[in-house]
Design a protein that fits this description.
The structure holds two protein chains of two kinds.
Chain A (H helix, E strand, L loop, with lengths): L2 H11 L4 H13 L1 H14 L13 H13 L3 H18 L3 H15 L20 E6 L6 E7 L4 E5 L9 E8 L6 E5 L5 E5 L2 H6 L5 E8 L12 E6 L1 E2 L1
Antiparallel strand pairs in A: 1-2, 1-9, 2-3, 3-6, 4-5, 4-7, 7-8
Helix pairs in contact in A: 1-3, 2-3, 5-6
Chain B lengths: L5 H15 L3 H23 L2 H17 L11 H18 L10 H8 L17 H7 L3 H13 L3 H8 L3 H20 L3
Helix pairs in contact in B: 1-2, 2-3, 2-4, 3-4, 6-9, 7-9, 8-9
């Protein structure tokens, strides 16, 4: 096997850790040929899981899931928006033919039951563009997703998959062209939460605007103390 | 092996598609049909009831929030979900949030038999489980290492330590085993 094929197999099997794991994850995101090889290995290995005994989870687990769903902030909006975004991100990396097929497949999703999903590609009523940023968390395979909704002066912060460590919070900061950083609130691990954006920040946000994440004591940066270390950063792009 | 009925598989597939469209009832349907299977996987990897419950919750919430990743044309839904759950459980091990507990020997034992469960409704009949046959063609050492990696989510370093061999040795055993596995499986693809 080539070294890429070997890496794909090792990654799919879960043998990697540390920097090797991070590097493989990055490859999977950026390199479609590598991602395809990983998927093939996952498919090859998947039947092994047939040998694992099923086990009934307690009913409480489903109740917890339902409770989480109920507490999702404006969940229907957020979820359908995230899906629209993701479709857009996907389409960006696909051939025109694939994108057409994708749009066709995606159609039922846009006209699902309940409230109509916002068609964000042509979001009416505002000249301000949607901005999105992805912030990888170093040392983990996870990342924070930021989406700025100009009409609502609202920043959706997606921290799905992250868990609190019980001793720190992480604070989001907008980095203006000049002047002090402006706090945009504290990350809520495991959730998608809408953060209100102060007006001056809303006016300044544009393609390329920078966000940083600092590690703080629980509750965020205390008054009169310097902010904690910057642990991650990201820049917005117009979508 | 008693295969999943085609009907059950198609029903699950349809629920996955509805789920991607934001239908919350579809999530419950998928959960009811697959949670025992996925919980078994999380528990096997994490070795702890409580951690496995957290992982399971995370699996279905992530599924709900990112359901559009499933490609119905490509994979059987149960295979895809099983891979997804295993990956999420391993993520938890790797991010260091979880300290692995030990799966009691008697519960781990059925794995050593390498026998796919006969009573699992969700086993996919159309998928030729060639990996079982091909694993058998490997030498005992690489076969054991690959199986342990799959079922327990062990890293190279952990496997080397467990078998008391240098890391480089473990890597070359497994890499040779994977190459052989690939050749064998491609013969049937």
């Amino acid at each position: 096997m080539t070294s890429d094929e070997t890496l794909a197999a090792e990654y799919a099997l879960g043998l990697l850790e540390g920097e090797d794991l991070l590097a493989a994850r990055a490859r999977e995101v950026r390199d479609p040929a590598f991602a395809e090889e990983v998927a093939r290995w996952q498919e090859r290995l998947a039947p092994l899981a047939d040998a694992i005994h099923p086990r009934m989870p307690r009913e409480e687990v489903w109740q917890r899931i339902e409770a989480e769903l109920a507490s999702d902030d404006g969940s229907a909006d957020v979820v359908s928006l995230r899906r629209s975004l993701r479709r857009w991100q996907w389409a960006g990396g696909l051939s025109a033919a694939a994108a057409v097929a994708l749009a066709f497949l995606a159609l039922p999703q846009l006209t699902g039951p309940g409230e109509p999903a916002p068609d964000i590609a042509t979001a009416p009523g505002s000249d301000a563009p949607l901005l999105a940023a992805n912030m990888p968390i170093e040392g983990t395979p996870l990342s924070l997703d930021f989406t700025y909704l100009p009409e609502k002066d609202s920043l959706l912060v997606g921290a799905v998959g992250l868990t609190a460590d019980g001793v720190h919070d992480h604070e989001i900061w907008f980095v203006p062209e000049e002047g002090d950083l402006v706090s945009l609130g504290i990350v809520t691990p495991g959730k998608v939460v809408a953060h209100t954006v102060p007006e001056d920040v809303a006016r300044a946000l544009e393609n390329g605007s920078q966000l940083v994440l600092t590690r703080e004591p629980l509750g965020g940066k205390p008054e009169g103390v310097d902010a904690g270390p910057v642990v991650a950063e990201a820049r917005f792009t117009t979508i | 092996m008693q295969p999943a009925s085609k009907q059950a598989r198609e029903k699950l597939k349809a629920a996955m598609v509805r789920l991607a469209g934001g239908d919350r009832d579809a999530l419950e349907e998928v959960y009811r049909a697959t949670s025992a299977k996925l919980f078994g996987i999380c528990y096997r990897i994490l070795g702890d009831e409580k951690e496995a419950e957290d992982a399971l919750q995370d699996v279905y919430l992530t599924l709900w929030r990112r359901a559009d990743r499933y490609d119905a044309d490509r994979a059987s839904p149960i295979s895809w979900l099983a891979t997804f759950a295993r990956n999420r459980a391993i993520d938890r091990l790797r991010t260091g949030k979880v300290r692995r507990g030990a799966v009691p020997e008697d519960e781990a034992a059925p794995i050593a038999d390498e026998t796919p469960l006969a009573d699992t409704m969700m086993i996919d009949a159309e998928r030729e489980a060639r990996v079982h046959t091909c694993l058998e063609t490997l030498d005992e050492t690489p076969r054991g290492a690959i199986r342990t990696a799959f079922f327990e989510g062990r890293t190279y370093a952990e496997l080397a330590e467990r078998m008391d061999v240098p890391l480089g040795t473990m890597k070359s055993w497994i890499r040779r085993g994977l190459a052989k596995l690939k050749t064998c499986m491609e013969a049937g693809e």
